[in-house]
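for the writeup, i need someone to sanity check this before i put it in the appendix. the sequnce is what the collaborator sent (i think, or maybe the updated version? ugh). structure was predicted straight from it, no edits. if anything looks off just tell me and ill rerun, i have time this weekend
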Amino acid sequence: MRLYNSLVARSLILLSGLLLFTLVIAPLEQSAYGQDVIRASGGTDLSIDAVATGDFTTLSGPTIRETVAGQLQQNQTIVLSLPSGYEWNEALTGSDITLTIVPVGAQNTDLQVQFTSINATNVTFTVTTPSRSAGAGQGPGRVTIDGLQIRPANTIVPDVQQITNTGTTGPTGLSYGDLSKSVGEMAMVRVETAADGSGVVAGEQGVLAGNSLQVYAIARDAGENFIENIALDDVSDWSLIEVTGDITQTALTPSSDRRNAVFSSQLTGTAGIQAEYESVDLFSSGTITVLPRPASEMVIHTQPGAAATAGEVFNPQPVIRLLDQFGNLVTTDNSTEVTAAVESGSGPLEGTLTATASGGVATFTDLNAETANTITLRFTSSGLSAIVSNSIVVGAADSDKLVFTSVPSSGNQDISLVPPIRVQLLDAFDNVSSESDVEITLSMETGSGSFSASSSNTDAGGEAVFDDAQFTEAGIKTIRASSTGLTHAISGNIEILEDGEVSAFRIRDTDGNPLGSQTAGGSFDIQISAIDGTGTVVTTFDGTVDISSSSVIGSGGGTTAAFTDGVLASHAITLETSGNHSITAVMTGESIASTSDLFAIQPGTLELDSTVITASPSPIIADGSSTSQITVQLRDEFGNNLVSGGE
């Protein structure tokens, strides 16, 4: 009995200790949360397409399992909460959601849980009856929640998260279900800048002519998530759209696998790049502008007018275009200066001689020339080869003034002056005017006695000839040429001599004929006669004359030998300048002078040391494509250009 009591006592002590331990530990577990959670399945790899379609995915679970009765506490809530980016089907009702409760480690459980409410973020369940461990095989329970539906709320991927419990009972800090999204079906094909999806749609941009731009066909879902660098069905599915300028379809070269294409054009313009794919949205590139390279040459886009009037601007004015190495107009050039000058012909170029490019075009506005002749223009710009215009025939302006072109320095009284007086029409710039039928009259300006001359009308060359002008008294005279509306002209002094005095010299060859063609550097003989106003030789003249010429005189210039019976029978002379020239004889110490008719002097024989070789342009740019024209001008020993030979 004692032993029994002792054993009982010890048992009670042990039991009491166990109960004490249980009383200390068990209440902590009951006040703590449930022991474990079996996560819901079906919430991973949710297609973001559901954002657009509105489709939900049904979950299996989660399950909350008690390890001790009463862990899910009465009247407390289990709130299954979704993170941002996911949403519940808030149209569900209690009849759509299945709650399965079974005992855990016992035959029965009193645990009762019911559906309370749902919104897009939270599903709430309430514990209406807790489990208990007292009698009739009662114990903890396990509740499984089925039928919940979920979908993505946005298209962001990757997005890996969890369902959590934010209620007042049940485990917290655990995952009640794993969540993740996956890219959707292909919804678009975009022309982008990188093959791995890290790029962007190729935007509006400029590309220098000859440079290249590589783009890729990128497939994305409705949320613009990268799927793949997709191969188009055919190379023709790569194309240029909205093409302007000189760009052609050949500027786009698709790769052999059709996943990318390279755009490169030597010609300027604009275009977009499109990747065609069936049944999806297409996003082409922004506008690609092919820009010109720096100017490498000039061209004359508009030639100056072929005919012009002295002092009036050329019509049209020249327009110069700046081109790059591919022949594109350099529309980006707004600073290059182009300067114009006379290349061939005489007289200066007037107006604003330098034009600044605007959009690659240099337009001159007021170029003109005041000298009547045929000219060409040369256009230059730093770093570029010069260019030369077509010929411009500059004609005289309207008649403005008169000028004496031939007035004898002397004559005899009562005898018509020889050679005849000639008066020419000139414009305001001293160009010969060819206006015909303009009446011109002569009158004595200074001197004694009287003067007579019939009026004369200009010929087709604008010149009037007076062959009957004469004075009645000896002395120094001047005359005036007048015409209505024009500025008059006053002649130089004319010495009028008495009858029988020398008033002129006649220059002929030794046979008495006008001088014929000669050769530069070749000596020839001339005959000079002293004559009066009637052309009669004054046999009493035994003086000398001084010889000059419009040509360079090699020998025979200066004072001659004395005349005999009014004639210098032979005088040797050598002239060196080719062209049409004359010889002038002036009475030594006097003003009486005469000039021969023009005669031709031909170039001499070839002299290699005088020959000139020129290059245009010079220097030449060493770029493998620039050229220069080489000109060889054959000349004689006097520097006269040969007009034949050298073949």
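Residues 1-34 have pLDDT under 50 and may be disordered. Helices lie at 2-31, 50-53.
thx in advance!!
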